Amino acid sequence: LFVPLTLGLAFLLAIMESVYVMTGRPIWRSMTLFWGVLFGINFAMGVATGIVMEFQFGMNWSYYSHYVGDVFGAPLAIEGLMAFFLEATFIGLFFFGWDRLKPVTHLAVTWLMALGANFSALWILIANGWMQNPVGAQFNPDTMRMEVTNFIEVIFNPVAQAKFVHTVSAGYVTGSVFVLAISALFLLQERHRDFAKRSMVVAASFGLASALSVVVLGDESGYVATEHQKMKIAAMEAMYETEPAPAALTLFAIPGADGRPAFQVQFPWVLGLITTRSIDRDLPGITELVEHAALRIANGLKAYVALQDIRAGGGEEARAAFDASKADLGYALLLKQYRPDIENATGEEITKAALDTVPDVWPLFWSFRIMVGVGFFFIAFFAFWFWKASRHTLDSHRWLLRVAVIALPLPWLAIEAGWLVAEYGRQPWVVEGVLPTFYAASGLHFWDLVISLTFFVTVYTVLAIVMVWLMARVIKAGPSDKSALDVPAEPLSVEPVPAEPVPAN
User: Fold this and answer.
1) pTM for this predicted structure
2) Which helix (H) or strand (E) holds 190?
């Protein structure tokens, strides 16, 4: 909720201050200061909620922390040591260095602050990308943990890279919509007109480029997901049966009594071209993927049995058997929901576990379409305001300004829908194919979870209310720098001074 606005505002501040340093016009300094205060409020709330989330890993996800902490913890540690401290240090210089640093030096501070925010997102998304596509690590039967084997693969994970560029672009859109909406509000209120118009020009330009990037880079995310998360793609499209290549994209569908689409509107070829970049590759449907999961569960049981032999002192033969099937060990763990002695699982239990690999289709189906629909809306939205800015008619229609203000919540709607696709779409895995979500959670009682979840929700809600209240106060007050008016000073009225009498010789 908080980070996307931080990402967007940071670069907008850098752009505004760059114009100030190049032109020397005080209004651009005032713009940087005003939007900088709102950035600072949002950043503080993001830090507070991030600290709470760090503790949650150990509290509610203790086995996850134990099982994959060696891999997952490394990017988070680097994020804290490198990116967060970089960002936090330069934020202090940004706010308190205006009268202590030269303009060019302060501009460098602002750009480094923006880069620090993006470095933070990079390392966090590397950690999250590994959960989606666990490369560069393998399970060690002696320590019973996942361990890093190639950190370069972890960093340059294709899922992480695609997720990073897509996510930060969504943050840039969020910052642009925020600046444009608040500026439109100023114009509706007939306040700070020059300030608001300049802010809208920057937001419309940066926002248009960002909105186009989100859609283009989202296409790359879909292609990468096809390679590594086929079930997610099939569920997003409510595609139960394998379609001949190239598959059609479903624009709209109505579920039937059996949960499958009873009516749907499709665009031929589009899904196949997006996800496979070809016209001859099939996209597997949910039914085929469930059958494949059942085979992987049966193979994973061999690894599980060999693992028990290794722990009991088995020799090279047990290790060889484990190595032959260890890639499917995580699938065997899906059976832990049905019985503790999974080596004795029945065919019926294997079938149930295989069906568990299918996330709920329709929440995923509609979340994806909300995200995509809002994304294309923003391309048109920013293109329109960019056109208005080029014609110097930003305030020509008040109803259009109202539309800009009403659009303020839409970036968060699209982002949350996107995260639902990313996180809910990979269920039942907390780490894709490696660790089931139910297996990763701490062994807590129901009421322990209710209490901790209530605490987290309460803290986040209070912080969100405080942030909105503080921002509303700053916006209501408006830019406080008097030089922001950018109006020539009135000529001074000077009283005539009587001439002194000249003394006579």
Assistant:
1) 0.90
2) none
